[in-house]
Hints:
Helix content is 74%, strand content 0%. With 104 residues, it is mostly helical. The longest helix is centred in the N-terminal third of the chain and has 28 residues, at 2-29. It is elongated, with a radius of gyration of 16 Å. 22% of the residues are buried. The model has no long low-confidence stretch (mean pLDDT 90).
Amino acid sequence: xxxxxxxxxxxxxxxxxxxxxxxxxxxxxxxxxxxxxxxxxxxxxxxxxxxxxxxxxxxxxxxxxxxxxxxxxxxxxxxxxxxxxxxxxxxxxxxxxxxxxxxx
Length: 104
């Protein structure tokens, strides 16, 4: 039961909301990207954030008395959950990107 909650936490917080933040940054800054550029940029940012989160968890558990997980499979499950959230965010937010201006 707690494991399922961790999966949801990573899918929503680690993937979907991180993707939404990328969307809001692009929209609010007025940055003109094609849908493909936005998708690639966002996937790179969200993936990097997920890996950094897992590295922090690793160092926290290695160099302190805190216990974050009992097995290494949790790291892979967390990254997979982040990916599910990221893909969902991509499907939801990418259609709202206006796209880059073309020189014609």
